[in-house]
Specification:
- The structure is a homodimer.
- Chain A is an alpha/beta fold.
- Chain A is built from eleven helices and twelve strands.
- In chain A, the strands form three sheets. In chain A, strands 4-3-5-12-6 form a five-stranded mixed beta sheet, sandwiched between helices. In chain A, strands 9-8-10-7-11 form a five-stranded mixed beta sheet, covered by helices on one side. A two-stranded antiparallel sheet of chain A has the order 1-2.
- In chain A, strand 1 (49-52) and strand 2 form a beta hairpin.
- The interface between A and B is medium-sized, with 33 and 33 residues.
- Chain A binds a DNA duplex through helix 3.
Amino acid sequence: MNLQQLRYIHEVARRGLNVSDAADALFTSQPGVSKQIRLLEAELGIEIFSRHGKRLVAVTEPGRAVLEIAERMLCEMNNLQQVGEEFANEHAGSLSIATTHTQARYALPRVIRDFMRRYPQVKLSLHQGNPRQVCEMVLDGSADIALATEAISEYEELVMLPCHQWNRCVVAAPRHPILKEQPLTLEAIARYPLITYDDAFTGRGQINKAFLGRGLKPNVVLTAIDSDVIKTYVAMDLGIGILARMAYDPAVDRDLGMIDAAHLFESSTTRIGLRRRAWLRGYVYSFIEGFAPHLTRRMVETALSGSADNYQL
Amino acid sequence: MNLQQLRYIHEVARRGLNVSDAADALFTSQPGVSKQIRLLEAELGIEIFSRHGKRLVAVTEPGRAVLEIAERMLCEMNNLQQVGEEFANEHAGSLSIATTHTQARYALPRVIRDFMRRYPQVKLSLHQGNPRQVCEMVLDGSADIALATEAISEYEELVMLPCHQWNRCVVAAPRHPILKEQPLTLEAIARYPLITYDDAFTGRGQINKAFLGRGLKPNVVLTAIDSDVIKTYVAMDLGIGILARMAYDPAVDRDLGMIDAAHLFESSTTRIGLRRRAWLRGYVYSFIEGFAPHLTRRMVETALSGSADNYQL
DNA sequence: GACGCTTACGTTCGTCGTAACTATT
DNA sequence: AATAGTTACGACGAACGTAAGCGTC
């Protein structure tokens, strides 16, 4: 048994049981992969993949167990590399953050500026995507940490830690009548054409729930994944907008009026997602603490190694 | 990086940083081990061991991190083997149980008989030791499960699950006056010479605590690690005995009188100890459930993969 | 017939063990 | 002088890539 073989079966499984694709991805020859897999199967005395003739068609039951373990081992192997890099130069390295637009645009800039000042030798990369993509990136190792609001409870292999709670505001063109509503109600909002986030994005779930709970059908005329797009169309008075509160800045958004709407919607929790059992570079802990000061290194370490339950704020 | 190198550093660390010993234990040559360690260090870019000249004298800080990860990987490697054996023949294999005398003699016989009937092809081996030894055996892989009562909360790498609670009885020669005490008190016990378990054994802690709590100094004239030894000497009327209740069988111990003493001592909890993250053969779950029916496969699996906290009964 | 895995084979690289060397106690 | 680790070197074996073969779709 060797680590190469584990890499092979893992990649083959990931590529839909296509050995040739896996070989390409691993920059090696297809027969080599094929042979090593057979050797591993022979050594363990089981079939990892079931075959129709020569083609791999499914993962066997023992194969599932083996793949699960193999994945953990490959992850630990990666951890070893990380340890090496950390102690070679604890200030240099790379940090890949996968996040949604709202976080990247409104929550992160300050945190990232401070981080870059403190760790000028760390290469930062920011990847945008929807919450699901963001999680997948952490799972497959193309990102170190995920930051998102929805849809990230369902991954067993991710540790999710709560960072902030936030809520929404309503924005509208400066002299729009809704800005006079005291207090603001869902019924009032439902009277106007509405522009807000795309489904499955940045807390859109909570918005839907609130209206549904009152038997209201909001007239959503436009959805976007992007607060700035929403603001642009609201400024053109094509409708009123429901935004994350943090996306409204009175200094910048002088072409928009705003009313807080925290009393109308359940608050959303932005969470950070990390790969379970990952060994993190020192500066990653530092970044996390910069984003959510209550997430100390100790806390995060405990969560990473430990329990399968997700923590509640 | 390869698994062999991890085996090497692990063994070297285990053998007090003696490369030659480690090489012997791994049935290979000393220069081979030495070289592979250096190669690994070079690849990771760190020193795992610090050296005085040529001698290894300590584990470095990154070395500690590396060794911890390596140990987990080796454990996962062992898990892969287990998966192989399970699916090659789920009824055959081996099960190594490390336990204390009291469990082996009084709690286990029935469980083991049933288990052997159900899995005649499983080679059982029973290892005795004190609670500490029993845990060490699981940690270093020479036993699959530990059964013991004391001193097993302190191992971070073990998952401890509660099985039974039990308490003690007082035994004495048939017409001994203590058998007439109604109700039995610690003061009464303290009046007679006492024979009981050795320190650090089978709940001796609870016994000490009870007497201490009442400011009593029992007159312990003889200690043993073995209930049968205690009974033998009590039968010779050399003193009265405090025993695990399960160690008294009226049908067999007709040369002894008994009074229950559960009201005098805190109850003890027998726990099963498993290596964290271990992958267990199907029949191991079956054995555990035979010993403690509330420990279903699901429960044990959750505990193994999950939380660092030990479960409470 | 195209795609995809396996078998066959020669080359290369890595690993291991012996032996000689060097440093520490 | 004895113990412990490194360097050097030669032999063996494992892994890889190319090319050919065979089974599915």
